[in-house]
Amino acid sequence: MLEAAGSNSPIHAAMKANATVNMANRMTEDMSSLVTVEYSKAISKVKAALADRELFLKDEVLAAVWLMSKREMFVGLKGSALYAYDTHYSGMLTLLQMRGPRQLETERGRQLFQLFLAPLNWGPLLTRQAPSQQYLELEALMIKTSPCFPDTLLQIHRYYHDVCTSLTRPTRSAEIKRLEGNFSRLNEFPLVAAQPVSDRPSFSDDQALCLWYFRGWISFFYWSKLHVARMYLHLSQIQLPASRNIFHQSLRSFLGSFSYALGDVDDHGRSRPEATAATRNGRLKESRGINVLGALHVQAPLRHLTADPNLYPHESRGVSAALSRLNAEFRLW
């Protein structure tokens, strides 16, 4: 897309804005003026493209808006950057909705839809809001990008909606029990079966965690959607001993999935001993890279957990270490 769009395009400007922030984050010199200049250029070009009726639904413009949301995450989600991120988040939902089912007719369209919608998936859960109609329509399209198990996917989405809705009001024990029963049933489906990693990566620094692998991106996406929803359900009832135990158990499982998200194990549970750029300080002629879809998918709940006071000290260290690794991968990727 960059090559086809050219150097005067919004996607090129958005990519340059990201690159400038990433470089500034690793430099001791003050680069704030250059960061501001490139950001202003990118915003101007993206706004112009969105106002152009012939351009605003193109893949390149959608990618540019997404890149701008990533740029805000690299700056740090606070103050004006948080407001800008929320704006780009809403813009992404609107663009994906306006592009409609036709965006799924091409392989690139399907890949972009999965890549961009997956991180937005967490919005209702992390903000404790019932899913909006706009989100529900996009979620229905998400099922069409999956090759099989439509009934299973619908049930997992329904469980997720029920958890999000329960977080908007005081939750009774009967509802917790019902949702826990639904989780147990859904967790038996082959689609969301997480397999334990026996061949542990040599650079795995937390041998206490059970590491998981998955038979493809769709499996990982729905497993994490199911388990993270359960984790936040019981976090809302953390004062109850049973919910407290389930929350910490779910958190450890979530952290254990990061070996897959960061590409340390493959779809068959095999260790990938060759390091990524981040684990070798970038000094590699060739890097195997990370599982980009998986890493972007877990980024939002991971960041959200860093501020939670209910984590045990070793869990906080695990979350911080995973987030540091994630940031390092993307800054060198």
Summarize the structure.
This protein folds into two domains: 1-99; 112-332. The chain is built from 15 helices and two strands. It has helices at 2-5, 10-25, 32-50, 59-75, 80-99, 107-120, 123-126, 133-144, 150-166, 173-186, 217-235, 241-256, 258-261, 292-305, 313-332, and strands at 195-196, 212-213.
Features:
333 residues; mainly alpha; 2 domains; 15 helices; 2 strands; globular
Structure explained in plain terms:
The protein is mostly helical and 333 residues long. The protein has two domains: 1-99; 112-332. It is 63% helix and 1% strand. The protein is built from 15 helices and two strands. The chain has helices at residues 2-5, 10-25, 32-50, 59-75, 80-99, 107-120, 123-126, 133-144, 150-166, 173-186, 217-235, 241-256, 258-261, 292-305, 313-332; strands at 195-196, 212-213. The longest helix is centred in the first third of the chain and has 20 residues, at 80-99.
Unreliable stretches covering 5 or more consecutive residues? 203-207
How do the strands of the widest beta sheet line up side by side? 1-2
For the terminal residues, how far apart are their CA atoms?
18 Å
Secondary-structure element string: HHHHHHHHHHEEHHHHH
Helical segment count = 15
Number of domains: 2
Can you tell me the overall shape?
Answer: globular
> Residue-averaged pLDDT, rounded?
84
Radius of gyration: 20 Å
Query: What helical percentage do the residues reach?
Result: 55-70%
Number-wise, the strands total 2
